[in-house]
């Protein structure tokens, strides 16, 4: 009986001209556009400069800031008040105010002052922009000390040299961090939405009533709905692996078999959730609204964009019962660190519990009436 149900599902799937196209083109569109849009690296910060000194060294400082690649010189203001008006109008994000006699103080006493004023409406941009400027100032100070030979003598103050060594993502490329998580989000959307909409679509068309009068058991019916989308999930995952490798050069450090193992369990989780929602929905519109609600919660509280540990306590508790967060941990760990099943055993246990719970719920909640 299961064989005929699967044959029916695959025939329905391929008769639908839209569904195969969506399975092929949605991963392409997501991985082409989203890694560039979902980027938390701050660049192109609009800078307003108030140079009260107009000296060689003040110009050298401004040029060094612009050459860093993080700032765009939006305007050179004659006063702080004029620069603040640029921030209020949205023309500038941050102000670099260089004091009068900057060069004289720097050469005479070895100390000079600058003031950094940042628009903190966007706290991330304001904080990182100020941090970038502070780092550039420190580098500028070292350059001047080297030029003047202040580091050549024996009586040099002790210092600690910090040499960063980034593990797992050497060049701090945000796409390496985001692409594995976006694959999880894509897998969640397709293998969660499609089973739910499939059953509700049959309810609206009336074909499910014909199924209800047959001797097909509930567990067989649910398996007939799960297995095709389980197979589709593997197709989507394989497409995403190829796109990540050829477009961004991102390949997993660990084993692909580990990812496929966890994906086989995770697809059952989200497909089971979709089937549960479809069992309680009578119309396509109702199912879509409920799925969107759950998807928003799952995605925002999964650690996709912000670390779970940075969330409030109540949000961290929700993340512990969020299957999406576990599979994102798996994908990032295998892709970036090469983790194996031994290191990711807690995630496998959690996903297995979710899969068992949702699919058992889907079987019990399916109302078969004949």
Structure in words:
This protein has 370 residues and is of the alpha/beta class. It contains 14 helices and four strands. Strands 2-1-3-4 form a four-stranded mixed β-sheet, sandwiched between helices. Helix 7 packs antiparallel against helix 11. The longest helix has 32 residues, at 174-205. The protein is elongated, with a radius of gyration of 28 Å.
- Biggest sheet, open or closed, and with what strands and sense? 4 strands, mixed
Share of helix among residues?
55-70%
* Whole-angstrom Rg: 28 Å
Query: How many separate helices?
Result: 14
Order of helices and strands: HHEHEHEHEHHHHHHHHH
* Helical/strand content category: alpha/beta
Oligomeric description of these chains = single chain
- How widely separated are the two ends? 18 Å
Mean pLDDT: 83
Spatial sequence of strands, sheet with the most strands:
2-1-3-4
Query: How many strand units?
Result: 4
Q: Tell the overall outline.
A: elongated
Uncertain stretches of 5 or more adjacent residues: none
In percent, how much strand structure appears in the residues? 5-15%
Which characteristics define this entry?
370 residues, alpha/beta, 4-stranded mixed sheet, 14 helices, 65% helix, 6% strand, elongated
């Amino acid at each position: 009986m299961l064989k005929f149900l699967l044959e029916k599902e695959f025939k329905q799937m391929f008769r639908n001209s839209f569904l195969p196209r969506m399975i092929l083109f949605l991963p392409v569109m997501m991985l082409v556009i989203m890694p560039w849009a979902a980027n938390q690296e701050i660049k192109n910060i609009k800078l307003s400069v108030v140079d009260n000194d107009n000296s060689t060294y003040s110009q050298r400082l401004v040029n060094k800031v612009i050459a860093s690649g993080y700032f765009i010189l939006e305007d050179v203001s004659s006063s702080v008040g004029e620069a603040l008006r640029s921030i209020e109008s949205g023309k500038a994000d941050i102000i670099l105010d260089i004091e009068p006699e900057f060069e004289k103080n720097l050469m005479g006493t070895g100390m000079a002052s600058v003031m950094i004023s940042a628009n903190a409406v966007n706290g991330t941009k304001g904080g990182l922009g100020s941090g970038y400027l502070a780092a550039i100032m420190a580098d500028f100070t070292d350059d001047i000390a080297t030029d003047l030979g202040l580091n050549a003598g024996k009586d040099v103050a002790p210092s600690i040299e910090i040499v960063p060594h980034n593990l797992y993502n050497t060049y701090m490329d945000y796409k390496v961090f985001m692409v594995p998580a976006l694959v999880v989000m894509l897998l969640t959307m397709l293998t969660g939405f499609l089973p739910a909409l499939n059953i509700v679509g049959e309810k609206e068309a009336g074909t499910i009533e014909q199924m209800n009068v047959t001797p097909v058991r509930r567990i067989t019916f649910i398996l007939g709905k799960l297995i095709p989308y389980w197979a589709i999930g593997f197709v989507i995952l394989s497409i995403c692996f190829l796109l990540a490798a050829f477009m961004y050069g991102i390949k997993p450090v660990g084993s692909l078999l580990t990812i496929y193992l966890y994906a086989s369990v995770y697809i059952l989780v989200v497909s089971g959730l979709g089937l549960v929602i479809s069992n309680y929905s009578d119309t396509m519109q109702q199912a879509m609204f409920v799925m969107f609600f759950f998807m928003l919660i799952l995605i925002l509280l999964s650690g996709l964009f912000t670390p779970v540990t940075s969330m409030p306590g109540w949000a961290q508790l929700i993340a512990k019962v969020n299957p999406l967060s576990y599979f994102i941990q798996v994908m990032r760990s295998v892709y970036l660190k090469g983790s194996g099943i031994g290191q990711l055993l807690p995630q496998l246990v959690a996903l297995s519990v979710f899969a068992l719970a949702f699919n058992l719920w889907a079987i019990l909640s399916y109302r078969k009436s004949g």
